[in-house]
Amino acid sequence: MNHTSGNIDELLIRILDDTAMRADVRMFAEWIRAEENRKYFEQYKKIWHTTTGVQCDDQVVEEGWQDYKQFMLALPERKKRMVVLRRVLRYAAIVAVILSCVYFFLKPTGNMDDQAIAYVDITIPNERGVMLTLADGEKVVVGNEKRGVIYEKTGNVNIKQEGRNELVYEDVETSENRDVKEGAMNEITVPAGERISIILSDGTKVWLNSESAIRYPVRFEMGKRVVTVKGNVYFEVTKDVDRPFFVVMKDMETEVLGTSFEVNTYGDRGEIYMALVEGSVRVRSGNHVVIAKPNEQIALDLGSREISTKEVDAARLVAWKDGVLVIKNEPFADVIRKLERWFGVEIENQCLHSSALLFSGVFERSELEIVLQTICANLNINYMIDGNRVILKN
Description:
Elements: H1 5-16, H2 22-31, H3 35-42, H4 58-74, H5 78-88, H6 92-106, H7 112-115, E1 130-133, E2 139-142, E3 148-151, E4 157-163, E5 166-171, E6 185-190, E7 196-199, E8 205-208, E9 212-217, E10 225-230, E11 232-236, E12 245-249, E13 252-256, E14 260-264, E15 271-278, E16 281-285, E17 288-292, E18 296-301, E19 307-311, H8 314-317, E20 324-331, H9 332-343, E21 346-349, E22 358-364, H10 368-379, E23 382-386, E24 389-393
Parallel strand pairs: 5-7, 10-12, 21-24
Antiparallel strand pairs: 1-2, 1-6, 3-4, 4-5, 6-9, 7-8, 8-11, 9-10, 11-14, 12-13, 13-16, 14-15, 15-18, 16-17, 18-19, 20-22, 23-24
Helix pairs in contact: 1-2, 1-5, 4-5, 4-6
């Protein structure tokens, strides 16, 4: 496809000014397929994971800017092209990002089965206490108010318990020969009524809700950072342009560079989903690939296997990580299931007429009885607590 430098310049400006039409985007995508333009693109391959300019940190933008200038100055017919250089000089860092964006969105998605990462199921024990399973199979119960190092034999990585519900992986220097074995994995399982947060060895922060689990490397090696999850998990991923982060669930996979999002595989309504708080992610399920934007939920229907996208209040969805139970216009049957997970109890609802009612409420670190009192007062019903069992009745 032949274009004059002026036409390409105008096309780039429209893209940079966010005024490009669909035809412009197609033209731009076709333009970068040319060999000479592909060479241009290769200068920015190291940041191809970045999907929006606002997600780039200052260092990445500056490096892209310097590469852009050096490349443009080295092109043939330098004098002719200096006109273009002057016009787009102030946009150069953004051009690098735009090119990487186009590659991210238009990257071939064939052979999805070859790209998919195998899912390994995690069994969540039906017992009290958060369980940490170490690389050698040893199990450690977390959450007994201990502070400091609780285990430090997994190589040059210490596992510290900073609070009742927080674990931190940190690199340490030691004279001992404790190098972690390549591929050594740890696992966390969280039963009903419990929650925990983890800081992984790369700095990524993870929150696990009740009835959830995660399997992850003790230390991330070069290449992909891959974790496997089950249940309801929230991530704040540390950016690393050389090591994309993959969250593998049953039937779905999420690929990110550095962003905040939630995954949920409970399947209560016959679906699993990913909800994006900030950044941008690519979600795969079978041969389907979807790019998500902030406050979008990408859901997979477990029956039809169809993918759907809808707008959500992502901040509300992930409030649980801060100890806030949020219920908004939800059927009472769903509320009951949420309470069972949150408090680790079994609820028997003998008020069948209430099952279809919609209920809303916000409870900040409340005790079970406070929540029950509020709900029952609104629905004009009664409750009885018998050990780990709650009975709702008229």
